Amino acid sequence: MVSFLIRRLIMMLLTMLVASFVVFAVSELTPGSVARKSLGPFATQQQVDILTERLKANDPLLIRYGRWLGVLTGVLADPLQDPASGLNFTDPRGRRYFGNFGYSTLYKLPVNDVIWDRLGHTAILAGLAFALIVPLSIVVGVLSGLKEGGALDRILSVVSITFTSVPEFASGVFLVTGFVILWPVLPGTSPMDASGGWSVPSQLVLPVAVLVIYDFGYVARMIRVSMIEVMEKPYIRTAILKGLSPRQVIFGHALRNAMIAPFTVLLLQLNFLISGVVVTELVFAYPGFGRMLLEASLFGDISTVEAATLVTVAVAIVTQFLGDLGYMALNPRIRVA
């Protein structure tokens, strides 16, 4: 077990290293001056020339990547904060610290002052949605799987497919029309600020509802298929013939084995809920991570885009690691192997 964890941690670090190089290389090799992309479109040519010299932007790619990685890990001081550059970029954490993603030209702040605040907002949204998606999907999937081909299965399947087929922006518009315009009981925007007269919890209702409506049907269908397959196994028939109650058969034998396959699907929803909720955040003006990434990409804020991409990769790696641990917990054969 310990050796497995060590191997996985080493692989995670290597994956992050490779991902960081790819992100840096793509950012550096896109058309345009490195200094211009770092400073933004409104910087003067004098500032661009100063930063080009300070960054030594004409050096080979691997050397520039090494310096960028050194600043990111806190080994090297951030050249953007050098007083001699005249750029007046300052970070309250200092010029050298671990996790220095640079300066955001869009928000006029250090990237760390922007990205973690937005990521926290998205984590709240994702956590609430995930807490509703998991039990709802399990209940719907199990009921459909136990009543395969029956009226309940057909009804739940139609509901799941219909909700999953409706795009996020469409369900958002429907909910806003119903609960903001026709029946004004909820706010139409979610700025996470109670100064507008609406409490923060009330601002989260519609965005969370959109994510749950869009996502739970897909997960429920996966659980349904797995449940049907498990209920046809010989050990389930043996448990029934031994006189076990339906509750004992389902919760003691079927459900745990049926969740092995959909476990990956559930964890993939975390990646979607962190980085794939751009549409929902735009519809409700929610100050989240996905919206920040879109705005930074459109503006050309290269430092914020690099940081957000690395955070997204890190979330994917961590969820994959949690998936491995989950498989080991659900399936003793994998744990023993």
From TrEMBL:
Membrane topology, as annotated:
Multi-pass membrane protein
Q: Which PANTHER family match?
A: INNER MEMBRANE ABC TRANSPORTER, OLIGOPEPTIDE TRANSPORT SYSTEM PERMEASE PROTEIN APPB
Check the record and name the InterPro entries matching this protein: BPD_transp_1_N, MetI-like, MetI-like_sf
- Identify the domain of life: Bacteria
The subcellular location is:
Cell membrane
The name this protein carries in UniProt is Peptide/nickel transport system permease protein
Question: Where are the bilayer-spanning segments?
Answer: 123-143, 155-184, 204-223, 265-287, 307-330
**What main location does UniProt list?**
membrane
Domain ABC transmembrane type-1 per the UniProt entry, residue ranges? 119-323
Keywords in alphabetical order, please: Cell membrane, Membrane, Transmembrane, Transmembrane helix, Transport
UniProt source species = Labrys wisconsinensis
Q: Which family does it belong to?
A: Belongs to the binding-protein-dependent transport system permease family.
